[in-house]
Amino acid sequence: xxxxxxxxxxxxxxxxxxxxxxxxxxxxxxxxxxxxxxxxxxxxxxxxxxxxxxxxxxxxxxxxxxxxxxxxxxxxxxxxxxxxxxxxxxxxxxxxxxxxxxxxxxxxxxxxxxxxxxxxxxxxxxxxxxxxxxxxxxxxxxxxxxxxxxxxxxxxxxxxxxxxxxxxxxxxxxxxxxxxxxxxxxxxxxxxxxxxxxxxxxxxxxxxxxxxxxxxxxxxxxxxxxxxxxxxxxxxxxxxxxx
Length: 243
Ligand code: NAD
What we know:
The chain has helices at about 15-25, 35-45, 60-75, 95-125, 135-140, 145-165, 185-190, 195-200, 210-220, and strands at about 5-10, 30-35, 50-55, 80, 125-130, 170-175, 235. Helix 1 crosses helix 9. With about 240 residues, it is α/β, with parallel strands linked by helices. It has 9 helices and 7 strands; from the N terminus they run E-H-E-H-E-H-E-H-E-H-H-E-H-H-H-E. Strands 3-2-1-4-5-6-7 form a 7-stranded parallel sheet, with helices on both faces. The chain has a single domain (about 5-235), classed as NAD(P)-binding Rossmann-like Domain (Rossmann fold, 3-Layer(aba) Sandwich). The structure holds nicotinamide-adenine-dinucleotide (NAD). Nicotinamide-adenine-dinucleotide binds near residues 9, 55, 85 and 185.
């Protein structure tokens, strides 16, 4: 029987690649994102058992997504918390409304989805939760304190749940990518908020991380072979952080 996976933020970028990689590896996948047209197209490429578009910061949508994915997949064995937003803003210019928006999507939504999927995983005595953090949450990032703080929160969530769920056959890990070219980052360089060559010069390997590098690691963490890896915060960042 093939294992099942819910991947949030899988209409584009890193999440789309994770969904494709898992489906090619034989997992049954369920996709979620905001852009319905892109999500429909990606779900087709992944032969997904289902997909649902909506705003994860809307509590009703989150519940609907969980119930629909759980029904279609007949239980969620693997949860990939990938959906996220990035805000580049000096602290004094950051609108107060952004605080709850960023913390909700990047930290509370992963917490909530973990809360919902864990009972099934406990019953099965098998589960994999993979959170997508950011190297920004590990080393900090000027003008991205809100984003960095929300991603740093995932480190505590991952470690605590790893301890809590270890005896139930459930592992939980965090992957922290460095710069990846996606719809999240391209506008920052296109509108010269950030200078691309300056940023890449700071990366020891002088390059972007490719989505396939993240999806390949996620596929491994989702496998039976990765059973001994839990509570880890894994930096996939071309040398940006060595800690
Ligand atoms: P992306 O913009 O291509 O993808 C983000 C995904 O999240 C999309 O599918 C989008 O629909 C979904 N999403 C955003 N807001 C949502 C909401 N309110 N409700 C539901 N879904 C929502 O960006 P990406 O670079 O592929 O980002 C994926 C993850 O990787 C994010 O968690 C991001 O923080 C993390 N990350 C990205 C980079 C990078 O350089 N691109 C680096 C480190 C970490």
